[in-house]
Amino acid sequence: MKPRFLSERYAVAGQLTLADVEAAKAEGFRGIVCLRPDGEEAGQPTAAEIGVAAEKAGLEFVYIPVRSGTTPNADGVNAMRRALDTIQGKVLGYCRSGKRAEDIYELAKASRPEAPKTRRFDVVIAGGGAAGISTAASLLKRRPGTTVAIIDPANEHYYQPGWTLVGAGVFTPEQTRRTEVSVIPKAANWIRETVTGFDPDHRQVLLGDGSSVEYSVLVVALGLKLDWNGIEGLAETLGKNGVTSNYRYDLAPYTWKLVQELRQGTALFTQPPMPIKCAGAPQKAMYLSCDEWTRRGVKGAIEVEFDTCTPGLFGVADYVPALMEYIRRYNIALHTKSRLVKVDGAKRIATFERTSDTGTTIIERAFDMLHVVPPQTAPDVVRESVLAGDGGWVSVDPATLRHTRYDDVFALGDVAGTSNAKTAAAVRKQAPVVAENVVATLGARAVNAIYDGYGACPLTVEKGRIVLAEFAYGGKLMPSFPKWLLDGTKPTRLAWFLKEKVMPPLYWLGMLRGHELMVKPGHKKAD
User: Fold this and answer.
1) What is the DSSP string of 481-494?
2) Are 272 and 278 spatial neighbours (Cβ–Cβ below 8 Å)?
3) Fewer CB atoms inside 10 A, N or C side of the chain?
4) 29 forms bridges with which residues in the sheet?
């Protein structure tokens, strides 16, 4: 294979072999487009065969057959343009000689309509993650015909709560991933761009291509930033030298690999300062690892340590006794007010700052496995905007989720400056509230739906049992089930069943489609 580049990110080649697919991946291509119909000559690999090889290599594959000696029709040109817009990174087009792959590219480029500098929608949603998609779906169910734009450059959508189970060998990575286009509501407009700024005084969102989008109501749902560079040496050693994290799709399988291979030595698990996405996730990885080592009979040869910046094991006291029981069961050394500040992957040394009543001490710990949760902040584009409040998060009323200064701006999910736990369960409760209040705002009515701060954290303490922490603002317990059926303060098999079997389809088929099971919004009491 000798690709010939027509632009910085598009190249053409003659007929590919199955081996060429791996070579394309090694050369940095992210997608392959086949322009050659099957059966043109004997021995020609089929598009399906190349497509399967591409999928196994982690590459996207698009099939747009163009008969030799013909000009690609409008449908083919449009399909090529969509492929170029959808695939993030370098794209390789191929046919028998590369000529059709070149021709269709030139036609797609020439026929591309010039994007207007400014587009306008009733509602603009910045962010196409769980919060943005769920809000769009709930909004469109309440007010069909509303023009909605979702701004997000990502081509993949992830069920992030599943990564804990990927790191424990229960789920495969692929179970937590779908294409972004498959989850965006059909009635919504997808703008595949990066948000670069907000101008709420002129009701505009600025985009990476230099254009802007105008709105009547803005919903900010950009999530948070995982600051891998916030710990010295961490970014350089992730995915090797025994350093891993379930907070990334590509690293969770490495967690499971390390757990399977470790038979003796030291395993360290860390938690950064709050707020973070799913405050229980750092210890979930630890408990599930310890459970696996116990099952294999090697736990006695493995020293386990949990270093958390927080002053206690968990922020809601009612759940601490059950968790402490597992700390003792697995013989875990617990260090609170302990912050990871440096990682030397080559030497396998982790450096901590531990604070006590007598001051701060620097501790170096050798490790065989290190599971790291990085510091987390509001996205730069939010933190540096006029929408930001304390800590750089979007400043909103904690009940209505409306901005404290701009009545036509709302925020939810991880980016919102609220004190609730930053979890997918919180988004399930927030999305209907925002949707209802956006509809009221569009209709020039008072916002009335309120969010109570509900969040949930299924603490996986062993394979088959979970402590299902459910709580609202102020740490108030908010169980979804009667205590006789499921006592969330104790490890139960029913909670594991919900985590493994119920929550994933509830996410994909319920929450992202606007089905609001058990999350009906509360409302302000009449004066």
Assistant:
1) S-TTT--TTSEEHH
2) no
3) C
4) 90
Q: For residue 341, what pLDDT is reported? A: 97
* 34 is a catalytic site residue: no
Q: Which residues pair with 366 in a beta bridge?
A: 349
State the sign of the Cα–Cα–Cα–Cα dihedral 274, 276, 281, 285. negative
Q: Name the nearest CA neighbour of 327 among 283, 293, 373.
A: 283
CA neighbor of 33 nearest in space, from 8, 62, 65, 74: 62
Helix intervals (H) in 223-379 = 234-237, 252-261, 281-296, 320-329
Average pLDDT score over residue span 450-465:
96
Contacts of 155 (CB under 8 A, 6+ apart): 60, 86, 87, 88, 179, 180, 181, 192
Other beta carbons less than 10 A from residue 448's beta carbon: 16
List phi, psi (to 5°) of 177. -130, 135
Under 8 Å between Cβ of 63 and 45:
no
pTM above 0.90, yes or no: no
Over 455-484, what HEC string results? Answer: EEEEEEEECCEEEEEEECHHHCECCCCCCC
Report yes or no: 424 and 160 within 8 Å, Cβ to Cβ: yes
List the catalytic residue out of 34, 95, 278, 309: 278
Name the pLDDT band for 113 (thresholds 50, 70, 90). low
Q: Which two tokens stand for residue 361?
A: 């001490």
Can you list the positions of beta strands (E) in 276-416? 302-308, 332-335, 338-344, 349-356, 359-366, 369-371, 376-377, 409-411
**The two three-digit tokens of residue 268, written as one number:** 């360290």
Which among 352, 370, 372 is positioned nearest to 362, based on CA atoms?
A: 352
95 has catalytic annotation: no
Name the phi and psi angles at 347, rounded to 5.
Answer: -90, -10
Strands (E), 3-117: 4-5, 10-13, 29-34, 60-63, 90-94
- pLDDT tens sequence across 389-420: 999 999 999 999 999 999 999 999 999 999 99
Question: Among residues of the chain, what percentage have pLDDT more than 90?
Answer: 83
Catalytic residue among 34, 290, 309, 457: 457
Domains and CATH numbers, the chain: 4-111 (3.90.190.10), 118-224+378-451 (3.50.50.60), 228-376 (3.50.50.60)
